[in-house]
Amino acid sequence: MKKIKISPSILSADFSILGNEIRRLQKAKADLIHVDVMDGHFVPNLTIGPPVIKALKKYSKIPFDVHLMISPVHKYIKDYALAGADIITIHPEATKNVNSSIRLIKKFKKKVGLSLNPNSKIDIIKKYLSNIDLVLIMSVHPGFGGQKFMPKVLNKIKKLKKIKDENKLGFDIEVDGGINFLNSKLVKDAGANILVSGTTVFKENNGDLKKNIETLRLF
Fold first, then answer.
1. CB-neighbour burial class of residue 167 (10 A; exposed 0-12, middle 13-18, buried 19+)
2. Strand 172-176 relative to strand 194-197: parallel, antiparallel, unpaired?
3. Is the dihedral of CA 171, 173, 176, 177 positive or negative?
4. Cα separation, 85 vs 81, whole angstroms
5. Which domains does the chain have, with CATH numbers?
6. Fewer Cβ close by (within 10 Å): the C or N end of the chain?
7. Please, which residues have CB within 8 angstroms of residue 82's CB and are 6 or more apart in sequence?
8. Is the dihedral of CA 61, 62, 63, 66 positive or negative?
9. pLDDT over threshold 90, residue 53
10. CB distance 62 to 32 below 8 Å
11. 3-state SS record for 112-160
């Protein structure tokens, strides 16, 4: 099994001191920095854009794991790639041509992710699995932080892991939404190797980032 990685979501960080928050995550040994990009159209919220990502990159050498919840997404891929995204994850429903968007992300030498909403079927991304680096399974409906984990996605994670193993594919399985100390083991046991967590990383144990990251990773 691949090493378990933790990708803290800066959606739960203190936005008034984001640079410092990212420095703290680096010291706490986070594996990735998860950046949720929302457009108020594809999902009902607005967050940050390329200028903020570009400004934040100087605070950390940790790879930026950028989840684009925007539509149409294709025309914005270049902007986020140039801003400093290391992994660019898109929703297949948000582009007219998934293969074209995958090629564009690879053109900028970035890792490619495809995301599935809680009600989205694996079938819509199955034919792309050999050509991507990551599948992000949403365990909440995207758009807001602090939601409760949806246990029904555990079967989806298990099914995806089976497809991966049977076909000897190398993509990571990442899960985002309501991940905490109680359900993290269930998610890992189902087959995920990257956990996205915001509230738990930043709020539990009086904000002890290192302790929270290590607990999610090991237990």
1. exposed
2. parallel
3. positive
4. 5
5. 5-218 (3.20.20.70)
6. N
7. 50, 54, 108
8. negative
9. yes
10. yes
11. EEEEECCCCCHHHCHHHHHHCCEEEEECCCCCCCCCCCCCCHHHHHHHH
- Distance CA(33)–CA(30), nearest Å, equals 7
For the record, the structure tokens of 94 come out as 């948000």
Token code pair at residue 107: 């053109």
pLDDT digits (tens, 9 = 90+) for 126-137: 999 999 999 999
- Write phi, then psi, for 135 (nearest 5 degrees): -120, 125
Secondary structure element (H or E) that encloses residue 162, with its range: helix 153-166
Distances (CA, A) of 19 to 58, 196, 206: 8, 19, 20
pLDDT category of residue 46 using cuts at 50, 70 and 90: confident
Residues catalogued as catalytic: 36, 176
User: What is the token pair recorded at 176?
Assistant: 């985002």
Q: Which residue in this structure is represented by tokens 């909440």?
A: 140
